[in-house]
Amino acid sequence: MSTVVLLAVTGLGLGALYFLVASGLSLIFGLMDVLNFAHGALLSVGAYATWWAADGHLPGAGSGGPGFVLAVCFGTAVGTVAAMVLELALIRPLYDRPREQVLATVGVGLAVPALLSAIWGPDARPFPGPAALSGTFGLLGAHIPVNRLVLIGAAAAVLVALRLFLGGTRHGLVVRAGVEDRAMVTALGIDVRRAFTLVFAIGGAAAALGGALGGLYYGSVDPGQGTSLLIFAFVVVVMGGMGSVAGAALAAVGVGLVQQFANYYTASGLGDLAVVVLLAALLLLKPRGITGRLA
Amino acid sequence: MTTATPAREAATAGDVAAPAGTLRRYGRWWPAVALVALFAAPYSSLPLPGLLDGPIGSAGSLQLLALCLVFGALATGYDLLLGRTGLLSFGHALYFAAGSYATELIMVEAGLPFAVSAVLGLCCGVALAAALGSVALRVGGIAFSMVTLAFAQAGSILVERDPGGVTGGEEGRAIPADKLPSSLAGIGNTANLYWIALAYLVLTLAVVHWAVRSPTGRVWEGIKENERRVEVLGLRPYGFKLVAFVLAGALAAVGGIVHLLLTGGATPQTTTSDFTLSLLVMVVLGGSGSRWGPLVGGVLYTWADHRLGDLAGSETVSGLPSFLRVPLSQPLFLLGALFVVMVVALPGGLTRLPARLRPVLTAGQRRVAARERP
Questions:
Q1: Higher local confidence (pLDDT), A56 or B286
Q2: Contact of A133 with A212, CB cutoff 8 Å
Q3: How far does the signal peptide extend, from start to end residue (chain B) (predicted)?
């Protein structure tokens, strides 16, 4: 029983991490038809910025208590700015060339981890975290690391915030309408391009937050972390339906749980394999599932 | 779309001067000259300081040159999908790795001679490409890219997890020296491996050149420009796309076998999606859809990947201030950044650069000529 609980909570934590990456990815694809291969790099940027701040480089930030919160905020802010720069500098000039947009994000996805490893070295760096988050707590006989709960809480907060934003604000309305039918929104005289930058900023913020908290989950940061998460985020996006935030949340939970349980109870690595094969199967059986749809 | 350009070029060349026309006529033979030069490279002891570590004919330099040729050829084969048919596959590494791993496994585990194993390895690569391609091509656009990515990732996970100790996990599989024909083993025979790599390059260029000019190649071009229209003309794009996919997969599998010989083993790095992405970078860097572009991109990328790291450790670079030195020490960063610049500012890649510069240059010449005239 305790093993099952531990696996379930760890799977949920992993799912939360996937959701943080996939929600932005899903919105960006749903609205702009850009599959953002640089999204993993945004996660790495957030993780390194948080690590840099918590390591004592940012005055006021540190590895404990309020200092760590400040470091996470700093990391998220850096990721947001990076995403906006990416959209304004690279995606915007290529609006009429969709293939090149994807290629440009591929280039950024290669260059950014390389730059990170040039500056801070290719090896994993231990991630400083508050002592309160490094312990475990008992639940139904299992010792569960506290940082899983932090991830799950953050993902739930992001989900609620995104739903409130999409459902209750004017900008959210434009984004939702844009996912449904971009041409129609443009025809009604609304500048969808402003929504593009907004969606990139939201996605970058969520991914960077995922990077900052993923550092807690993994206990270290390394330049390739974001890229290795990206493919599982793709699985989540396709499963949840492109452009759907609630779908991404459900799919993230499913993928995280399946991966954890399959990796533990069958041969190691089979869970990863199952998820990847699931992606291919879904796309082949439901090619229409990848069109934009906002639940 | 490109047919109009040579005519205009020829016209301007005729206007400018007659000697340029003669030069152009002999200039058509430059690939043959380049081939002879490449063939004779092992006999040369010319040092190329900065470009290569030792003289051209030394084992280390030949090894690097051979790698450059292999990746140039590999990128040329990959462009059959990307630049000729308009298919963005993220799983090309799988067929390369299949050729390399299958040949090694058959040779070592079944004890067959190298030539037989290579043929069987190629068959494995082709069968895999046909099987997965026929499934993946059922969807189009970005979904196709993601299905190929998923297949390649599945292959990569399988190789890494090492089921039953078959793939050697992260270590990869090295060829025991006694399994190879003696003319292909050891540092002293690097020249032979180099010639094999050169032969692979010539083969790839010939196959791609021939395939693109065949009736099937014309349909590929049509699919790239407008797939719906090809359907309206009464042709089924699926079969043509599958032919392109399998042909590119077969060329990649041969490349995997040559790479296996060259590096003395199969490595799991060749299965990763990063490997496919690097092929993508090579093709776009050099110029997708052109005859020499992917080759140029592949050679440049491989050279930069191997040599820039060494250059970063040299005296001249280590003396630079850190904001210059740090990016220079990571070839991947430079290549990625160059790739992005290429995508945004120079669609068509490096091989389009002369054609883009020519109007600027001729305009400058005309201006000078006009000024000299009274």
A1: B286
A2: no
A3: none
